[in-house]
Amino acid sequence: MMNKIWYSRRSPLCWLLLPFSAFFWIASGLRRLYLRRWKQIQFDVPVIVVGNLTVGGVGKTPLVIAIANELRMKGLRVGIVSRGYGARVHFPRVVGLDDNATDVGDEPLLIAKKTNCPVIIATNRVKAVQYLMENFQSQVILSDDGLQHYAMGRSIEIVVIDGVRGLGNGLLLPAGPLRERAHRLNTVDFVVVNSGKWVNAYCMKMVVSDVTQLISGNQVNLNTLHQPVAAIAGIGNPQRFYNTLNDLGVRFKPYDFPDHYLFTINDLILEEKIMIMTEKDAVKCLPFATENMYVLSVKADLENKFWDALWTHEKLKGVL
Q1: CA 69 from chain center: how many Å?
Q2: Rounded-to-integer distance, Cα 162 and Cα 77, Å
Q3: Which of 69, 163, 171, 305 could lock onto 175 through a cystine, CB 3.0 to 4.6 A?
Q4: Distance between CA atoms of residues 211 and 297, nearest Å
Q5: Beta-carbon neighbour count of residue 1 at 10 Å?
Q6: How would you list the strands of the sheet with 78-82, edge to edge?
Q7: What are the tens digits of pLDDT across the range 50-81?
Q8: HSE of 23, CA atoms in CB hemisphere, 13 A
Q9: What letter would DSSP give residue 123?
Q10: Cβ distance 108 to 95 under 8 Å?
Q11: Kind and range of the H or E element at 159?
Q12: Cα separation of 71 and 90, whole Å?
């Protein structure tokens, strides 16, 4: 419902919600001022925040994974902090590779599995950063989201934009999808556009790395799977997943679920013989995986000039 309002031409409902957006603008502005001036904690190691201005999925997590793996290849001790949406544990908590996504959250578990870096979940990101410094001696820390968590000091800010949907109708919540006004893009270090183009942004695209059977981890050829398949998407922007399947020539029936949805086996009793899902959804289905469940793995592919600019950023000179 709200996505249709936010990402289409301004409807009459937008104007009805504008007074609430004005209140949000004032409240969030005062909060930002207060946290920056009196509560923000700075750290002795570089903290890189990867966030967005809009509500919903734009591709932050794949970018965090890509940066973490590149930093590890340079021999650095990398730590990652995450909110752990929906987590049911005491904070701060180290995400274990054998943890259940129900307990620690889907994105933190996926990041831990894809990077082998210590991932700390906590509602208070300052405590998460401090935990990484004290217990893992992290040399660089990445924050998956947290652009608006202003109590956490940061060295580098990276904002990811969906190149297809952009900033929607350009209005603040709840009339539009924006957490902060668009001019915030002028104050960050890097703007990365996921597919499409954006002025003064570095281009990123999602490329398919492989398709594997969830229960065994064995790689398969998509053409060998019985089609049409059931396409399972419990993510912020499922259309991106469906577009990828279309580009691969896969015939499928889409099944939308809310972002961060906690699946049960009963949710996946479908008429199609084969189901294929995102990695974010797959980590939640591992406890009851069956032989007919497959995972489409993607990775972030960024232009070389992004990496050149990141590695030469003055805030990373001390560790690279």
Answers
A1: 16
A2: 30
A3: 171
A4: 6
A5: 6
A6: 93-94, 119-121, 78-82, 140-144, 47-51, 156-162, 190-194, 202-213, 293-302, 275-278, 229-233, 252-256
A7: 999 999 889 999 999 999 999 999 999 999 99
A8: 6
A9: S
A10: yes
A11: strand 156-162
A12: 29
Give tens-digit pLDDT for 222-233. Answer: 889 999 999 999
DSSP 8: S
Phi and psi torsions of 110, nearest 5°: -60, -45
Asked if omega into 46 is within 30° of 0 (cis), the reply is: no
In angstroms, rounded to a whole number, what is the distance separating the alpha carbons of residues 181 and 173?
10
Looking at per-residue pLDDT, the higher value among 109 and 83 belongs to 109
Instruction: Provide CB contacts within 8 A for 109, sequence distance 6+.
Output: 95, 99, 101, 283
Query: How far apart, in whole angstroms, are the C-alpha atoms of residue 38 and residue 28?
Result: 15
Rounded to the nearest angstrom, the gap between the alpha carbon of residue 129 and the centroid of all alpha carbons in its chain is 18
Contact criterion met (CB below 8 Å) for 175 and 166: no
For residues 290 and 264, give the distance between their C-alpha atoms in angstroms, rounded to a whole number: 12
With cut-offs at 50, 70 and 90, classify the pLDDT of residue 196.
Answer: confident
Other C-beta atoms closer than 10 Å to the C-beta of 224 total 7
Tell me the three state secondary structure of residue 166. coil
At 77, is the secondary structure helix, strand, or coil?
coil
Burial class (CB in 10 A: 0-12, 13-18, 19+), 84: buried
Give the DSSP H/E element, type plus range, for residue 211: strand 202-213
CA distance between the termini of the chain: 46
Specify the DSSP class assigned to residue 304: H
Closest alpha carbon to 109 in 120, 97, 118, 125: 97
Residue 41, Ramachandran bin (φ over 0: left; ψ between -120 and 50: alpha; else beta): beta
Q: Are 204 and 192 in contact (CB under 8 A)?
A: yes
Q: Are 196 and 164 a contacting pair, CB within 8 Å? A: yes
